[in-house]
Amino acid sequence: MPIKEKKIFKNISSKTWEHPADLAALTALRQIPMLNEVLQKLLGFLNDKNFRLMALSSSVRVSSTQFADIYKLHKEACMILDAPYIPELFISQNPVLNAGAIGVDKPFIMLNSALIERMTPEEIQLVIGHELGHCLSGHALYKTVLAILLQISLSIFNIPIAEIALYALIAALSEWDRKSELSADRAGLLVAQQPEVAYNVQMKLAGGTDIAKMDINEFFRQAADYEKGGDVIDSVYKLFNTIWQKHPFPVIRLTEIKTWVDNGAYQKILEGNFAQRANGQEDFFKHIKDAADQYKEDLNKSDDPLNHMVNNFIDNINDSTKKVSQFFDNFFNKKD
Fold first, then answer.
1. 76 among known catalytic residues
2. Which residues neighbour 281 within 8 Å (Cβ) at sequence distance 6 or greater?
């Protein structure tokens, strides 16, 4: 769809596309005392320069003279979501279909080269919109912290109680991280403004790039089969299959996008009914509460017998707060 035919969402608030599950998980995450301890220590030790220098040294920065076609798609995506700034965009040599947003004060976007090689321009722009959604929602900070904690965890060979608590925090961040993808998927669709493009991206993530050999209706039926409640054993398998995944499974993302389209919420935004940045702050806490209430309602409607247990696991990890704080003091003292 040419840019001249697309809706431009002037002054749109990120609340417009944020998924209730994302907001509920983030609210729970922010209530974990150890998170603030970790943030204070990490942010005193790191800044955007570390990540940007790595990108500059090993990737190609997109511009009007490098990947000019991608640069045009990027600028259009920023225009559609009325981004207050245009994040730097890099392309990294990587055969995996993936992308990311990283940084603390001024996040940037990284696209793997596989995306450029295997996706259409419309699909690439949807992915850019997805990552831009992460940037505008403030997700990049927590994603960066998660990436750092994962690196730190790899250096730990003994597992006393403090390290166990660290892994619990990583698990909590990972749970929110997966939920944040559902919000970013909506931002991507607002940029693409073609639901079939969003569906095709999920099919490609699941089964490769030969769309001609796949059928979207059959893929929806496959998603429905996965979503069926089954018994508790099925739910346990789902839990163990999911808990260390970086993204929700494609069939889950497909279902969530289609639900958003089918229930009319997406169309209302296209018609101009969306939250504005100018008056967003006064409604923030009500917005969080409404999102949490909606999330609980969705859980109650779920057929999955283990769903409540899975989504409440964050409540169980607060007891080790002091030990985690001490662990980080010791960790950074070692570095000094």
1. no
2. none
